[in-house]
Give the backbone structure.
Amino acid sequence: MGKGFNIAKDIFNLAKGKALEKNKKGSESLGKDTPEGSFNVGTFLSKVQEANGLARANKYLVEIDPPQGGWVNAPEVVQGLSFFCDNVNIPGAAVIPVDHRRNSIGPFDRRAQAIVPSEISASFMLDARGRNLQFFQDWVSNIVYMGAPEKAADIVVRESDGAAFGEIAYRKDYITTMRIKTYDMAAQHINTTTCYEVWPSQIGDVTLGWAQNDEIARLTVNFQLRTWVQENHQLPEGQDPATYANRALSPMEQLLRIGQAGTALKASWKKPHNVGDVINIASNAQTFLGSFGGRKG
């Protein structure tokens, strides 16, 4: 009697679960412009694939033009800084609002008054010859003259231009242009942020210590700027959009594309617990197989 009751109970629970089960529409909603399609992981992965993947924060290059002042004795040091900059931020900007009242009555309507670019903070590894550190120290000293090492600071006059201790240089002699370039995994140029009228407002301390056996000396420099311009390099110069969209991938691009798809497939490769897991694995497997194609489009 008890066994029959348990069987009937199991049948009832099975029928109840089947009646309450929602339709699985994962494969049907893939890529569709619907709420279900927007939250489909396959749709997300396909959109990322269309955008050539996600941007990597470690693919960049910093270029600093030598300042125009006559104090720059080694322009090759400035050009070589691109290889020593191990940390930098792409500057943003803050739009300053001002209160405005229409027709001098009613509530305030805030409007834009000016824009202030944010400063650039960059970290530079120091070379064993000390030339990187010397360049930034010279740059700051030629903005506000701090004296020479062989004389007392308060009686020093710089022989090159007659600047006295604490004298501020002309702006045109210490400003320069800086470019921050970003690249994709295949070393294709993506964006260039060109910053104008750049000058160092602060050079940080260089931390030294006997216990820092495996550490590299670094210098943090904060730069001020007047304005910046952003340029996006969607296509290589001279390329036709239609031709480039369906171009043949280079061997390195094919390898990177297969690696990215394989990583996504490996991350999702587990015992499926529901229909969503099955769809996720199938979608990643399809992306992985499609990555062996030799064309971008």
Remarks:
- The chain has nine helices and nine strands.
- The chain has a mean pLDDT of 78.
